[in-house]
Amino acid sequence: MRIDIITIFPEMFEEVFSRSIIKRAREKALAEIAVHQLRDWTDDRHKTVDERPYGGGPGMVMKPEPIFKAVEDLRKKFGKGEVCLLTPQGKRFNQEMAQDLSGNKHLYLICGHYEGVDERVSEYLNTREISIGDYVLTGGEVPAMVLVDAVVRLIPGVLGDKDSPVEESFSEGLLEYPQYTRPEEVRGLKVPEILLSGNHKAIKKFRDEMRLKRTQKRRPDLKE
Ligand code: 9D3
């Protein structure tokens, strides 16, 4: 899978993409991720990517033409791919969307910034608009990292067999059971006795009950 990211803050991505699972996916050549500076596709002295909104109002809006040029140029080099626009106006990202996107051979991610992106960008490029949730961020960069993280780990071969994605809680609609590790007691807090018992059937029952209980309490919206 190839992912091309277009942003005015390319430096934000390198650290995140050079660690852990994304790092491994890139090393194994299962994911190729390239981050591009949108300003490279401007042609004025100041490398202008934003302008004041028609009709008035606060803030600045991203100009369409540098984005069009960027996508067209990258398409010539790397071929077609689904174009995603990270925007608060998008459909809310979830595990199902990550699964769906992981089936693509090539994605383009456009990170908005400032007050938003000229509406003709989504119109002309036929973008899929994606939000990561109902809170205000300063731009599409962190959302793009979230998307890449969630999608890349689903590419076959990226994860080891033992943490295969089919077993994950959001796929099953329940939260995970609580985890404990050594020591058996810390600051007066003990590991539940049952987990030390070696009784695997009882442990499974305990964990299943905990999953149901905490899902009911913390995420009643998940219940089906
Ligand atoms: C305070 C500005 N808002 C006016 C009411 C609108 C607004 C514009 C631009 C809010 C956020 C942003 C920048 N955010 C994104 O580009 C963004 C985002 C987000 O803020 N939340 C969740 N997902 C996403 S994806 C892109």
The tally of strands reads 10
Provide the succession of SSEs: EHHEEEHEHEEHEHHEEH
Ions, cofactors, ligands: which are bound?
A: ligand 9D3
The largest sheet has its strands arranged as 2-1-6-5-8
Nearest-integer average pLDDT: 95
Which fold name fills CATH's third level, the topology of the largest domain?
Answer: Alpha/beta knot
Structure in a nutshell:
The protein has 224 residues and is an alpha/beta fold. It is built from eight helices and ten strands. The site of ligand 9D3 has 16 residues, from strand 5.
How is this structure best described in words?
About 35% of the residues lie in helices and about 20% in strands. It has helices at about 10-15, 20-25, 65-80, 95-100, 120-125, 140-150, 170, 200-220; strands spanning about 1-5, 30-35, 50, 60, 80-90, 105-110, 115, 130, 185, 190. Helix 1 (about 10-15) runs parallel beside helix 6 (about 140-150). Strand 9 and strand 10 (about 190) form a beta hairpin. It is elongated, with a radius of gyration of 22 Å. It is built from 8 helices and 10 strands. It folds into 2 domains: about 1-150, SPOUT methyltransferase, trefoil knot domain (Alpha/beta knot, 3-Layer(aba) Sandwich); about 170-224, Trp Operon Repressor, Chain A (Orthogonal Bundle), CATH 1.10.1270. The strands form 3 sheets. It has a 5-stranded parallel β-sheet, sandwiched between helices. The protein has a 3-stranded mixed β-sheet with strand order 3-4-7, with no helix packed on it. It has a two-stranded antiparallel ribbon with strand order 9-10. It starts with a strand and ends in a 6-residue tail after the last helix. The chain is an alpha/beta fold and about 220 residues long. The site of ligand 9D3 has 16 residues, from strand 5.
